[in-house]
Design a protein that fits this description.
Chain lengths: 380, 380
């Protein structure tokens, strides 16, 4: 099948922050013929997948999956736990925090959106301060992105949890892990997260189209009191049907086949080894960026992302032009700068099914970008 | 990859009313490596797919697709065109009409649900009567399933349109074509349908995970006045992004690859030939059911479905037991009776990538069911 008018020989390097390079084993599993989603074989796969994925979130509590993008699982986290016009606390860490906040507003919520410079994570001190001041408990939830996909900045969820506990505030904690799950250490139960939002297309090694909510008991209690309008995203029929391996509506069968195989792969490698691999490759990427004399967008080394490195270009250079040249000449996709940082940064995704020589190829592609164009400085 | 503990040699016959047997060409297309959903190649595919799919709906107006099941596209049709607590008119044609009505109630709508016996389609006379009586135009939309997947009964959308026109009533017409699209003739523009809901996993030859709204200008006007809460399902950012081949959130890339190939196949065969093939195979299935001395659930031959035949078993026979035997002994899945007709009917899906010898195999599987069990009559 022709994907494009422009044939580019050799394997494409998909170094955006997701979707990621899909393992052949997963692509093959997805091309297994579709089966009856109400039959015994599919029920068995569903139960196996929903049981095994818990370990990826480090939880013993329910995880559910939607046939939807991550944006859908964001919406599910909100409409299942909150009430119309509730106040929530969010942090401007980058484009995806902005989009989640915009979604919350569309869903009638009042968002206290703490401004940020797109170079830092959510600040636990501000969480503690805001919640301590909120004596009447008007803030119903704190929404944070574990890893801001737009900037490559990690927020410290453990510290945010401690800040919430110090403030003795009952707000729910909702965390997006779309670009960190199965790549950067994350602990749903230990950090007492109420809803963790996940997506299929990054560390989970799948194409987009599945998304997840890991759910705490406190979130389930909130659900029972929530009056927000919901149908497709409603947890209740999902949890009831999942018990027997079924769904309230047709699941994305072939992505579930792929997930079954992706879980096999993650478990064969071992989740802690997956984290170590991402740490090592991310450190190598950052060393290269520094060797190029360029600046990493993330200001604080403790907040460096092990899945994504956003690289600032010097004034006067257009990152989108750089990305276009690299795509056209070297068959590699890099992530673009979004919104406030459009054209100013490019992002290297170093996550998922990824290894040393893929990274070195990716870094070489960036280095070679300037070899045959005038307006880009040869960086080495 | 092992799908089950029970190995069943030979090819599985997936004769449920959907998901359907997926063509190998589509399975292979879906296993093409995932690419950048914001890059130029994917934009080209998106534009090509969204342009070509219009002919499947017989429309020149916009068609949008969601990374979601058909149930999601139902929700989108409602929340984009209606207002909270609006009154709508629906017909109890079977389980899926019931589920759509339940969803509408969850979304705050008042449903005038005309009772039915699950053996007939929506009655155009009642549409005309109800709308004529509604002088103050309280009814804002008529929601009908073109093909009721639970019963194999087709509602005549052309006649329903005429009834609405005769009543000179401004209600919107929302039609579900999940189990008829690309299988039974359907005309979004000619029948002045305002929103047509489609799904990927039936006549469109794909696994589940994509769903569609084909949209009229009247529906777009209603959207601009609609105050229903919406975020994920909102048409506006979808239509804006689609213009350039993009989406407001991550699309289900590999299902879109599959859709591109499925459209190639449907166009190679020719849509009118696809309809003729479904008509012929459905007629053959019905002749067999009658030869068995069994009753087709659909009462009115003019409402017979060319995609699904639901077969009534004689009193005292359990259709689910029959289905289990056929699955275990002959490696074929049939559709179950849902809700009110559970255990009383089985459903033969004869749609999608399907031909004469597959049908004859399916019919033989039903005939052979009784050969080695006591409680099932050998039907021939």
């Amino acid at each position: 099948m022709s994907k494009s008018n422009s044939l580019r020989p050799g394997k494409h390097l998909l170094q955006i922050p997701g979707p990621t390079n899909i393992p052949d084993r997963v692509l093959r599993a997805m091309s297994y013929p579709t089966i009856d989603h109400r039959g015994p074989d599919f029920a068995e796969i569903t139960k196996r997948v929903l049981d095994r994925i818990k370990s990826i979130f480090k939880t013993t509590q329910p995880v559910i999956m939607f046939p939807a993008s991550g944006t859908g699982a964001w919406e599910a986290a909100i409409v299942n736990t909150l009430n119309p016009k509730d106040k929530i606390l969010m942090f401007e860490t980058g484009q995806f925090s902005f989009l989640w906040a915009e979604q919350a507003k569309k869903l009638s919520l009042e968002v206290d959106f703490v401004p940020g410079d797109w170079r830092h994570g959510a600040d636990p001190k501000i969480v503690e301060q805001k919640l301590s001041q909120d004596k009447s408990h008007k803030i119903k939830a704190v929404l944070v992105l574990h890893n801001e996909t737009a900037t490559g900045v990690v927020s410290n969820i453990s510290k945010i949890r401690k800040a919430m506990d110090s403030a003795k505030h009952p707000a729910l904690l909702l965390v997006d892990t779309i670009s960190s799950l199965a790549s950067i250490d994350y602990r749903h139960d230990e950090w007492k997260v109420d809803v963790t939002v996940g997506g299929s297309q990054k560390g989970l090694l799948l194409p987009p189209g599945l998304s997840f909510n890991a759910i705490s008991q406190k979130a389930l209690d909130a659900h029972s009191r929530s009056t927000m309008q919901k149908a497709y995203w409603d947890w209740k029929p999902m949890l009831e049907n999942n018990k027997n391996g079924f769904f309230p509506y047709t699941p994305a069968t072939n992505l579930v086949f792929g997930l079954d195989e992706a879980l096999n792969m993650l478990m064969e490698e071992g989740l802690e080894n997956v984290f170590k691999r991402h740490t090592k490759l991310a450190e190598a990427a950052r060393i290269a960026v520094k060797a190029w004399g360029l600046e990493i967008l993330a200001k604080n080394p403790e907040e460096y992302s092990n899945t994504i490195t956003a690289v600032l270009l010097p004034e006067g250079h257009d990152a989108d032009n750089l990305r276009k040249i690299i795509l056209d000449d070297y068959n590699m996709s890099l992530g673009m700068g979004l919104n406030k940082i459009k054209g100013k940064v490019f992002r290297i995704g170093h996550l998922g099914d990824f290894n040393e020589l893929m990274l070195l190829g990716a870094l070489a592609g960036v280095e070679m970008n300037g070899a045959d164009v005038e307006d880009i400085v040869l960086l080495l």
